[in-house]
Amino acid sequence: MPQYRLGVDIGGTFTDVVLMNLGTGEFRTAKVATTPQDLSTGFLHAMERVVVEAAVTPGEVAQIIHATTVATNAIIENKVARSAFITTRGFRDILEIQRQIRPTLYDLFFDKPPSLIPRYLCYEVTERVTAEGEVLQPLDEDEVRQVVRQIKQEAVEAIAVCFLHSYITPAHERRTGEIVKAEFPEAYLTLSSEINPEFREYFRASTTVINAVLMPLVARYVDKLQKEISARGFKSGLHVMQSGGGLMTGEVARDKPAAMVESGPAAGVIAASSLGTLLGYPNVISFDMGGTTAKAGLVERGRPKLAVNYEVGSAAISPDAHGKKGSGYPLQTPVIDLVEIGAGGGSIAWIDTGGALRVGPQSAGADPGPACYMAGGTLPTITDANVVLGRIDPDYFLGGEIKLDRKAAEKAIEEHCARTLDKDVATTAAGIVEIANAHMIRALRIVSVERGYDPREYVLIAFGGAGPMHVNGIVKELEIPTVIVPLNPGITSALGLLMTDLRHDYVVTYICRVDRLDLDKVNRVYRDFTAQGRSLLTQENVKEADMLFSKFMDIRYVGQSYERTIPVPSKEIAIKDMGEIAALFHKEHERAYGHCAPNEPVEVANLKLSATGIIPKPKLKDLKRGESTPEAALLTTRQVYFSETEGFVECSVYDRYKLRQGNAIKSPAIVEDKDATTVIHPGYQVEVGRYGNLILTPGSGETTKP
Q1: What is the pLDDT of residue 700?
Q2: Residue 214: pLDDT above 90?
Q3: What is the SS3 assignment for 424?
C-alpha cells in the first residue's frame, strides 16, 4: 500500500496543503481561504479536499504535520487564557517592570506591552535561593496552599510559577507544582525550571507566562483537530511544527505551546534549507512573501540560524522589521531567526498625513481581501497593484479558481492613492510595488548584513504566493547573484513540513570560566539530556539508528551580557577540547561583531542539546529534459509594466507546467504557476533546473523603453 505524508500550513490569507507519495516523490496540492473565526475549519477543508482529489484513503496517510498561527495570533491579539503568576516574595512586579530598554530610544510616548497576566493575579510566596543555588529561605508550603486556593477563586485556567534562581535549584518550584496539582488539579501548570531553566529572570518569567497563557487555547485546538482527524478515519495522529525547526507530537504541543509561536514561518526556512542542500547550496537566504506578511531567514552550512532574544507580540511587528528589542514579550525557546514585515499581497496602500504613499502593515487579509477579489474589499493592496501592472493574469489567479477584477483594482488605486498624488494609476501602482520592495530589501538586510553575513555570498530561495513576483526587483538592489524559485512556490512552506525531523531541545544554565569548568558535571548534564531525548524519541517510535544528538554551549567573554552559541564535540568533552571550543567562539565573535579578543578570559553560560529523530524525506521528482528553447511552454504575450522601462512592454508568458529541464527563458517574461507568478525583469534570464526549479541570474534581456 502506498504511503503518504500530509502537510497543512495555515497562513493569514490562505491555508495550504501538500500530499506527497513517499515512494514516488509525486505530490498534490490545494489552497483554500483561511478561516480566521475557526482555523480548524480551513485545516479540515484543505485536508479533505486534497485527499479526495488524490483518491487516497485515510489509512494510506502515514503522518499529518501542521504549522499554525494559533499561538502567535492569541498573543498578538491579546486573546490569551486568564492565568495567574506565582513568584518569589519581592518580585511580584517583574512582569510590569519588564526592562528599561525601548525600541526607539527617543520616543518618550512609547508604552510597554501590557503584561499578559494582570498585576492583581500575580502572587508572592516566601522562599529564596541564592545565585549559587543554596537555599537561603525555605519554601513556606502553607503560604503556597493559601495562594493556590485564592487563585482558584479567581476562575483562572492556567498558573505560571517562576522563582528566583530556580534554574539552578528547582526543588521549590517542583514542590509548588505538587501543591497546585493537589489543590487545583484542573488548572494548566507551567514551571519555569521545566520550560526554560536559564538565567535572566524576566526572560525566563516571560517565557513561562507565554507558555501558561497559551496552554488552554492550544490544548483545545489540538484536541479538536485530533478528534476531527480521527473521526475521518486517519490513524496517524498529529505532529506540529516548532518555531525552532523541528516537529513535536500533538501531546507535546499541548504542554509546550511556547515552542510553536512561529510555527508557520519556520516551515518555510526548513524547506529552503532542504532544497538548498539538495541542490548543493548550503548557504541560503529564504524569502517567503504570502498574502499578509513577508519573511526572511538565513541558513548557514545547511542549518537555519536561531534567533537571540526573540520577542513576540503586537508591538513587535513594524513596517520595517519584526522584533525590535523592548517592543514585545521575550521568548527564550529555540526560534528560527526570522525578520517579518507587514508586506504581503494583501497589504494596503495608503496616503499618510504628509501626503506620502505608504504600504502596510495593515492587511486586507482573507476577508474581505484585495479590491480585485470582488469580495467586499475597496482598499488598494499590493495584489491590486500587480494586477494593474499586468503581472497577474486576472483569469488565471489560483489556476483560474478565482477571477480577479482589474477595473476594481484600478478604481481602488485611483480613489485612494493616485488622485491624491496627482499621478496616473499605472505609475501609482508601480510606486506601491517599489515601496513594498524597499521594505523587503530592508528585511533581507537585517537578516544578513546586520547579522554579519554578506548576501552576495548566498543563494536566495523565493517562495510564497507573492515571493516570485517581487524577488527579481529585490535582488537587483542586494546584488544577490542567484535566485531559485521552487516548483509550486505558493505551497513551499507546507512542503517544508514534510522535510522536517522530530526535535526536542534541552538547556540548563551553568556559568563558569572555561579554564575552571567541572567537566565531569558538564558531561553528566549532556548524558542526562541525551537520556531524556532518547526516551522521548523512543515514545515517538523513532529507531535508535535514526536518533541524532547535537551538543552546544553558549559562550561569552567574562563580563559580557550576551553569548554566542557554539557547537561542541558529540563525544565526552575533555580538557583539550575546550581550547578548540574557545577558538571557535573567538572566530564566531569576530564574524558577528567584526572583532575578537583571544587573550581575554572566556566563560560558558548555558549547556544545550538538541535531540533529533530523523524521519524519511520525500524524494523530489526529476523533471523531463527538453531543448533550450521554451517555446512549447509559451502561452501568450501581454503588456507588463517595469520600472526599468518606465512603462508597459510586450512580455512573453509561459506555462510553468510545460517547461522542461534545460529550458532557457530570456527577459522580460512571466512564468505562471497555479499558485504563484514569477516575474523576470529586463536584464535577467532563467534556466529550468533538475527538479523544475527556476534559476534566475543576471543575463540577457531587453531593456528598451516603449
Answers
A1: 60
A2: yes
A3: coil
291 and 366 Cβ atoms separated by less than 8 Å: yes
Confidence (pTM): 0.84
DSSP 417: I
Distances (CA, A) of 386 to 182, 408, 455: 60, 13, 27
Sign of CA dihedral 315, 317, 321, 323: positive
What pLDDT is stored for residue 147 in this prediction? 97
β-bridge partners, 485:
694
The CATH number of whichever domain residue 253 belongs to comes to 3.30.420.40
Q: Side chain identity at 623, as an amino acid letter?
A: L
Range 558-577 burial, b when 16+ CB lie within 10 A, else e: eeeeebbbbebeeeebeeee
| Burial zone of 120 (CB within 10 Å; 0-12 exposed, 13-18 middle, 19+ buried) | exposed
**For residue 135, which phi and psi values (nearest 5 degrees)?**
-75, 110
Please indicate, yes or no, whether residues 184 and 227 belong to a single structural domain of this protein: no
Return the bridge partners of 512, or none.
Answer: 604
Identify the CA nearest to 507 among candidates 581, 612, 606, 611: 606
Measured CA to CA, the distance from residue 299 to residue 313 in angstroms comes to: 25
Confidence band (pLDDT; 50, 70, 90) for 3? confident
Residue whose grid cell is 502572587: 123
SS3 label, residue 603 = strand
Q: Cell 526556512 sits at which residue?
A: 269
Residue type, 615: I
In three-state form (DSSP H/G/I as H, E/B as E, the rest C), the secondary structure along 551-580 is EEEEEEECCCCCCEEEEECCCCCCHHHHHH
Q: Is residue 623 part of a domain?
A: no
| Nearest of 391, 396, 374, 463 to residue 432 by alpha carbon | 391
Once rounded to an integer, what is the mean pLDDT over residues 429-435? Answer: 94
DSSP reduced 3-state for 402? strand
- Please indicate, yes or no, if residue 621 is contained in any of the structural domains: no
For 541, the domain range is 502-613
Which among 271, 256, 639, 186 has a CA at the least distance from the CA of 426? 639
Q: Where are the alpha helices (DSSP H) in 543-658?
A: 575-593
